[in-house]
Specification:
This protein has 447 residues and is α+β, with helices and mostly antiparallel strands. The chain folds into three domains: 1-202, tricorn interacting facor f3 domain (Immunoglobulin-like); 208-304, 2-Layer Sandwich (Zincin-like); 306-431, Neutral Protease, domain 2 (Orthogonal Bundle), CATH 1.10.390.10. The chain has nine helices and 21 strands. It has helices spanning 227-233, 237-248, 289-297, 314-330, 336-348, 367-384, 386-399, 407-415, 423-431; strands at 21-33, 38-49, 57-60, 65-71, 77-81, 84-88, 98-107, 120-124, 127-131, 151-160, 164-167, 170-177, 180-191, 198-201, 204-207, 218-222, 256-260, 269-271, 274-277, 306-307, 404-405. It has a seven-stranded mixed sheet, with no helix packed on it. A hairpin with a 2-residue loop joins strand 12 and strand 13 (180-191). Helix 4 packs across helix 6 and helix 5 (336-348) packs across helix 6 (367-384). The longest helix has 18 residues, at 367-384. It is globular. The two termini are 24 Å apart.
């Protein structure tokens, strides 16, 4: 496992996160009432100061009323403005010291405004969901909101008993008292703040596949009226899980859940151990099956192996895009080479001013990043050959499991699987903007 903390603020979101300390664990106790959209919570955050003394530190939290804050049991001075909760302990924290922060907050959660619309907590017609990528986590809990700061989580949520609560991780307990039920989830694997997923709604839960014989437990949580369509659209997810474990290595978490909301979503959203789909992604005709594969692949690429900062997002999206093509290749559809060639033709008609290694904040979710990222992965496959390529992929997922990586980490890793230099390939595909020629080698899965 590798853990590479970015040295300073995220260049795309400098107001989010604080590189002067890291969080080891969050314990969140929440109470949510869907009708008035009312959330109250307590967070216990176990953290470690960095290499320098820490006279003050920052958490990110949206527009809530702060009840109280304690640092190691003592009342600090704090300010809360513009989504930043600045905390000055009674005594500066020593370099390397472990410390505990307790925050009580309450209010009406709302999405964080962004160039891509509201992010984070979204109130639905009957329930709520959380889709935080990239900066929506502070819409519902105080956090060190930077992808490199990965921590374990325990989340306790009390809601009216008519609602189910789904979160990433293992359900420890579900306790009903009078008209409310408390759900407690544990996510032991290190998790980036934006990848803490949550859905509150009226769902029917179904088992996908057979988790026996060492298989991964997979569950679907869907509105009962969508069950017939869901049963067909997600029928092949267990086969995807089996294929991806063959190609990428063991599934990195304890279990995997998918949620389908009653409302439409522009795109599905991955969280750690959990993916969220809209009703529009369920049509009974497998019309969104490539997205089922894409979100599952993110559990390896993006969630387990996470980016150190948002400049490197192509490492998440390019590999998930390529996983779509690998699934197509294995399941009887077009080969990955055919998909890559189609993507290349599309890219040749579009502006060629996007640099994968640093696309800029405005372009980090540009469709060109996904497509060029996928073709770049295919170019690496063509250069290495199938045997070395899939050894490289499995090594990437294993070596950096639960860690954080950069583009330079990947180029160095891939280069170890060939005696030929890959410098020109990466210079053209990753660091350049002009579209290189389509890789010419025809390939097929051979592992």
């Amino acid at each position: 496992m590798t853990v590479q903390q970015a040295a300073g603020p995220d260049p795309y979101f400098p107001a989010n996160g604080d590189a002067r300390y890291r969080v080891h664990r969050y314990e969140l106790a929440l109470d949510y009432r869907p009708g008035p959209n009312r959330l109250s919570g307590t967070a216990r955050i176990n953290a470690i100061a960095g290499r320098a003394p820490l006279p003050e530190f920052q958490l990110n939290l949206g527009d809530f009323k702060i009840g109280r804050i304690r640092v190691d049991g003592r009342q600090p001075h704090y300010t809360h403005r513009g989504g930043r909760l600045r905390v000055r302990p009674a005594k500066p924290l020593r370099a390397g010291a472990a410390f505990t922060v307790e925050v009580h907050w309450s209010g009406n959660p709302k999405p964080v405004a962004s160039p891509w619309g509201g992010l984070g907590w979204e109130e639905l017609t009957d329930g709520a969901l959380v889709a935080s990528q990239p900066i929506g986590a502070p819409s519902w809990y105080p956090c060190n909101d930077r992808p490199a700061d990965k921590a374990s989580y325990q989340i306790s949520i009390t809601t009216p008993s008519a609602y189910a609560v789904v979160a990433g991780g293992r359900l420890l307990t579900r306790t009903t008292k009078a008209s409310t039920t408390t759900w407690v989830y544990e996510q032991s694997a290190p998790t980036s703040s934006y990848l803490v997923g949550l859905s509150i709604g009226k769902y029917q839960t179904v088992l996908l596949g057979d988790p026996g014989l060492g298989g991964v437990p997979q569950h679907g949580h869907i509105p009962s009226d969508l069950l017939p369509e869901f049963s067909r659209d997600f029928a092949r997810q267990p086969a995807m899980m089996e294929l991806f474990q063959d190609l990428f290595g063991p599934y990195p978490f304890d279990e995997y859940a998918v949620v389908v909301t009653e409302e439409e979503l522009d795109v599905p959203v991955e969280a750690q151990g959990l993916s969220l789909f809209g009703a529009n992604h369920v049509d009974g005709a497998r019309g969104s099956e490539r997205l089922v594969a894409h979100e599952l692949a993110h559990q390896w690429f993006g969630n387990s192996v996470s980016i150190a900062d948002w400049r490197h997002i192509w490492l998440n999206e390019g590999f998930a895009k390529y996983a779509e093509w690998l699934w197509s290749e294995r399941s009887g559809g077009r080969t990955a080479h055919q998909h890559a060639a189609a993507a290349h033709r599309l890219l040749s008609t579009l502006p060629q001013d996007l640099r994968l290694a640093d696309p800029g904040r405005k372009s980090m979710f540009d469709d060109r990043l996904y497509e060029r990222g996928g073709v770049t992965v295919h170019a690496v496959r063509c250069a290495l050959g199938d045997i070395a390529f899939f050894r490289m992929l499995r090594g990437w997922a294993s070596l950096h499991r639960n860690g954080t990586v950069t583009t330079a980490t990947f180029t160095s890793h891939a280069s170890r699987f060939t005696s030929e230099s890959l410098d020109q390939l990466f210079e053209a595909w990753v660091y350049g903007t002009r579209l290189p020629p389509m890789p010419s080698a025809e390939t097929g899965i051979a592992v």
